[in-house]
Write a structure and sequence with these properties.
This protein is α/β, with parallel strands linked by helices and 310 residues long. The protein folds into two domains: 172 residues, 3-Layer(aba) Sandwich (Rossmann fold); 111 residues, 6-phosphogluconate dehydrogenase C-terminal like domain (6-phosphogluconate dehydrogenase C-terminal fold, Orthogonal Bundle). It contains eleven helices and ten strands. A six-stranded parallel sheet has the order 3-2-1-4-5-6, with helices on both faces. α6 links the parallel β8 and β9. The protein starts with 6 loop residues before the first strand and ends with a strand.
């Protein structure tokens, strides 16, 4: 545990699952000194204060940012550009600004016009979370063994990148670097598409029940497990869809192609074709799980590292 905090005073805008978990983990490891909490929900902020997740509640970013060595933006992604502009105008000289949003291209582009070079803004995305929201859902171990993607550009201050990297590694994450647009495409397939599929499946059942059929009454564990992420915050996922529109549409079109391929095999009665497709899917999933296990083993204490994206 460091004798001195990595950041003495930190503002967290949006003390929910991610922002609250980061505050918990960082305070537990003495990475943050004083944590200032900001957000739209005063009841959530009061609860964060009661739980010790934050040390004080601030009403305005214009009051908090000039006193902060680090500003973490952890709100729904559509709110980030305006917040970033407000922080850029009033932040403390030499401070670092980062975010935790799952859409990076538009925000990094905005930062390029808002911050002087070298820019102290470091785009970040911890690939971690649950279907729950609010500070009550936060916990200190959320980021252990998980990946955090950072999206610096040639304009970003290397010292700011290093500080943000150290923060995420210190709370247990494996840090990788990625171009912002590449990040958005990758997330469109591996994160945003699964949520669209889960929402779409539940919506399909909902529509099928409009004639009075009680289909959901017969759902089993598989349905509940598969659709768990459809319990995620609707506002957050609305914003993600609007900001990452093109990659999500591309991934949905690819998924529709796969569904059409399966439908055609079923329509033809092609049992062998179905078995081959299902087997390949099963083998691909096994490879993904094996890769996750190997990466998890690398993320044990003393072995954590950060890998630049190829």
């Amino acid at each position: 545990m460091p004798s001195q905090p990595l950041f003495e005073t930190v503002s967290i805008v949006g003390v929910g699952l991610i922002g609250g978990s980061l505050a918990r983990a960082a305070k537990q490891k003495n990475l943050f000194g004083t944590v200032l909490g900001l957000g739209r929900g005063m009841s959530n902020l009061r609860r964060a204060l009661e739980l010790g997740v934050i040390d004080t509640i601030e009403d305005r970013i214009e009051d908090a940012a000039p006193r902060s060595d680090l500003v973490v933006l952890a709100t729904p992604v559509c709110a980030l550009p305006d917040l970033l502009a407000r922080v850029a105008r009033c932040r403390k000289p030499g401070s670092v600004v980062t975010d935790v949003g799952s859409v990076k291209g538009s925000l990094v582009a905005a930062a390029k016009t808002l911050f002087e070079r070298p820019s102290s803004f470091v785009g970040g995305h911890p690939v971690a979370g649950t279907e729950h929201s609010g500070v009550e859902a936060s916990f200190a171990s959320l980021f252990e063994g998980r990946t955090c993607i950072l999206t610096p550009t040639e304009d970003t201050d290397p010292a700011a990148v290093d500080a943000v990297r150290k923060l995420w590694e210190s709370v247990g994450s494996r840090v990788v670097f990625m171009e912002p647009d590449r990040h958005d495409l990758v997330m469109g397939y591996v994160s945003h598409l699964p949520h669209m599929v889960a929402y779409g499946l539940v919506h399909t059942i909902q529509k099928a029940e409009r004639d009075g059929s009680q289909l959901s009454a017969f759902s089993a564990g598989g349905f509940r497990d598969f659709t768990r992420i459809a319990s995620s915050d609707p506002e957050m996922w609305r914003d993600i869809c609007l900001l990452n529109r093109e990659p999500i549409l591309e991934s949905l079109e690819a998924f529709q192609d796969s569904l059409r391929e399966i439908a055609e095999l079923i329509a033809r009665g092609d049992g062998q074709g179905l078995a081959e497709l299902f087997l390949q899917s099963r083998l691909t999933r096994a490879k993904i799980l094996n890769l996750e296990r190997r990466e998890g083993n690398r993320n044990t204490p003393g072995l954590r590292r950060h890998d630049p994206e190829d």
